[in-house]
Design goal:
Layout lengths: L6 E5 L4 H4 L1 H6 L5 H7 L9 H11 L2 E6 L2 E6 L26 H11 L3 H10 L5 E6 L4 E5 L2 H8 L11 E4 L6 H12 L5 H15 L4 H8 L14 H4 L6 E4 L11 E5 L5 E11 L4 E8 L8 E8 L15 E2 L18 H6 L8 E5 L1 H14 L1
Antiparallel strand pairs: 1-2, 2-3, 4-5, 4-6, 7-13, 8-9, 8-13, 9-10, 10-11, 11-12
């Protein structure tokens, strides 16, 4: 009889294993109060808005003990009907990519203690090379040890389809990317880009006593029983609605809470991210996003950076001299690569439509002032 793989949620803090290897290695039951204090955003960030945004960001990470190993699991990226172009059905995900992190973590807790997930872990660690085949429509998975299929994957002759991704596994240890694959393909949950940005904005505004949710609900003329978050997509951030304002994208104009929009070939905004901090002294912008076009270990909610010359704060985000550190890769190895090598190329793309732009909720002006003044006090 195969053993049941043990999974225990530990604590929802960001990059816990990276920050605290000594604490976790030296005790079976970590001192959670010490961990929480060490991981406090106020220990790392100075401005109130930076702290509030960081707190919202960290809600999208949770640390588990899986088979005796501490793993930091990030919220997957997931979007309704993504990868459905060749499927015979809609590919709907939990909450449509707009659920809040606490709801999603409750579902993930259940998934990671299921019999099927335990079987998945056992198969992965059987010491044998294999190709995993996920079926998004049926939310099932299988595997093959066929030598020809393994050779095809090693030769990058990818056989998968958008709704049936293939993954080569060497039968050794399980890592967070394996957990991500299961949560995305079988769990069918996560946050899309605008769902994540909306979560950060509403959470940050709430810290200042500002109800952004009600503002948008009234603006969209939605009944009170409807959650406006379910209707706020990147299209909304790109609209000319009176509650939004476009911000000239020179670095000197940017601040925490601003939304970065990336355009598609038809001129519409197709991706959104949110600025967490602008460090004028050291020349670095930190922005946060949810996307799966990233290195395997960063798929889902993650941080990204733009490096600039502190002596030139008037530089536009469209200036090719800026260094956007975020590289772009296909979600599953072997799939077609992104047309852009990094986020900078993506932001500058389609200049005939104006390329990327930055927008701000007007209400965030008061949020910015309230939170930063409160921290000073």
């Amino acid at each position: 009889m195969k053993r049941r793989s043990a999974v225990f949620p530990l604590i929802a803090v960001l990059n816990l294993a990276l920050w605290l290897p000594g604490i976790l290695a030296s005790a079976e039951s970590p001192d959670l109060s010490a961990i929480t204090q060490f991981a406090s955003p106020s220990e790392q960030w100075e401005r109130g808005t930076e702290i509030a945004i960081e707190e919202a960001y960290r809600q999208c990470f949770k640390t588990y003990i899986i088979d005796g190993r501490v793993m930091n699991i990030r919220m997957p990226f997931a979007e309704n009907n993504e990868r459905s172009e060749l499927a015979d059905t809609d590919l709907i995900i939990q909450g449509g990519g707009k659920s809040n992190p606490s709801e999603l973590w409750t579902s993930i807790d259940t998934i990671l203690t299921s019999e099927d997930f335990s079987r998945y872990l056992n198969i992965l660690q059987d010491g044998k090379e294999k190709v995993l085949i996920f079926d998004l429509a049926s939310r099932r998975w299988t595997w093959t040890r066929d030598l020809f299929e393994i050779a095809r994957m090693k030769a990058q002759a990818y056989k998968g389809l958008p709704h049936r991704p293939y993954v080569l596994h060497y039968g050794q240890d399980v890592d967070p990317t394996d957990i991500y694959n299961y949560l995305y393909c079988i769990g069918r949950l996560g946050m899309d880009c605008s769902g994540f940005v909306w979560h950060v904005l509403t959470s940050t505004a709430r810290k200042a006593g500002v109800d952004l949710r009600s503002t948008v609900q009234r603006a969209l003329k939605l009944p009170r029983k409807l959650d406006p978050g379910q209707f706020v997509g990147t299209w909304y951030f790109d609209s000319k609605r009176p509650e939004l304002e476009q911000v000239p994208d020179s670095i000197q104009n940017l601040r925490s809470g601003d939304i970065i929009l990336f355009r598609g070939s038809d001129g519409r905004a197709v991706h959104s991210a949110i600025i967490q901090s602008v460090d004028f002294q050291n020349g670095r912008i930190r922005y946060l996003q949810s996307t799966d076009e990233a290195p395997l270990e960063e798929r889902g909610v993650h941080e990204s950076f733009i490096e600039f010359d502190p002596a030139k704060p008037g530089t536009s985000l469209k200036d090719p001299s800026l260094r956007w550190t975020q590289k772009r890769y296909p979600p599953f190895p072997g799939e077609k690569a992104s047309a852009f090598s990094d986020d900078g190329e993506r932001y500058r793309a389609f200049p005939e439509h104006g390329a990327g732009k930055v927008v701000r909720f007007k209400l965030m002006n008061s949020v910015f002032t309230i939170l930063n003044d409160r921290y000073k006090g």
